[in-house]
Amino acid sequence: MEIIQAYGPYLLFMAAVFGLYMAWGIGANDVANAMGTSVGTKSLTVKQAIFIAIIFEFAGAYLAGGEVTDTVRKGIVDLAVFKEQGRPDALAFGMIASLLAAGTWLMIASIFGWPVSTTHSIIGAIIGFAVVSVGPEAVQWDKAGGIVGSWVLTPVLSGVIAYITFMSIQKLIFDTKDPLANAKRYVPFYMALTTFVIAMVTIKKGLKHVGLHLGTGEALAASALISLLVAIAGAIYISKQNYNPSNDKDMHFSNVEKVFGILMIITACAMAFAHGSNDVANAIGPLAAVVSIVQNGGEIAEKAELAWWILPLGGFGIVVGLATMGHKVMSTIGTGITELTPSRGFAAQLATATTVVIASGSGLPISTTQTLVGAVLGVGMARGIAALNLNVVRTIVISWVVTLPAGAILSIIFYKILEAIFVL
User: Fold this and answer.
1) pTM (2 decimals)?
2) For site-directed labelling of 346, which of 82, 129, 315, 337 has its Cα 20 to 30 A away?
3) pLDDT tens digits for 123-153?
4) Which helix (H) or strand (E) segment is 91 a member of?
5) What is the CA radius of gyration of the chain?
6) Residue 266 has pLDDT above 90, yes or no
7) HSE of 142 in the Cβ direction (CA atoms, 13 Å)?
8) For residues 59 and 273, is the Cβ–Cβ distance under 8 A?
9) Residues 125, 411 contacting (CB under 8 angstroms)
10) Whole-angstrom Cα distance, residue 422 to residue 420?
């Protein structure tokens, strides 16, 4: 406790800097969740995607990213153990080390274009410092086991949903005598379905952070109403678009993809908002914990209050990361795994959002990155295994497996360095 009181301002400064660094890593790597498919399908250019993501990622992080400090208390570490052993300094050093460790791993992954999980990066880091600081009893290992299980479960689930979605598009629209007419008929239904899922993501994972706590029934009703309005507006908009009048089937397909391209932009905006509101927690959760410990003079509070400057810091870091380094992971998601068209990208985006809704409703630990990659793989599988770049897939899977231990090892190293600087 004396260490906290003596070095409080220094610890706050370090936590803020490394929190910004972690948010930068989130922007550099995780922005591909929202924008990779839109860029890969050429619905958006890289510059357009970054511009849209800057607006919606920051809005999601700033407007709907509060009440996320419980991320550090979701059973990964038991704060009671730190209290019992009188080690608030270990918790503060550990959270700072975790931010630096996870940020460093995300930077390494982003440089190589590997889409890894920011959630697993920070969780691995927190597990690492907890074990070496107060012992294995500080970690709730059942939660860690659930994370490992999600490596398999979420990509498979989203892949299956993406496969089914794309095959339905193929059957109802592309494999018909008049693809454009059927696109005009069925795409509003896909719009409604997409809007419903995205609205559920936003309401259940986003808006609760700004004090809007809707029950499941109310969320379903609100999402259904919004999706109906979007379907009606979408049908009107699609009917008024200018299409190439050629009877050539390839031109019909081009016209159909134009319709799905409109849908891709809508889903990209909505997913960027939901992503910003959810994943900013990975940067500001540990930061808020350090701020709380310092402000309470070394006492470990049950709930970390959010200082006014923390959310803007996280949002700013995400924006800088995606603007400077986000293009590399976007390229891997959008073009590296398989060739995407707007209809295929839409199937992947819808599957990702649906899986996020299912997982958040059932309390499963989930990586949005792994969910999206699984969905893109599902779309590729619908065209046959030859449509997949298996070298890229293998590299991605290896980077997933390495993420948790990489975060833990880096965190242990940085924790020991901090301890040596401040304790000795």
Assistant:
1) 0.84
2) 315
3) 899 999 999 998 888 887 877 777 677 778 8
4) helix 88-112
5) 22
6) no
7) 4
8) yes
9) yes
10) 6
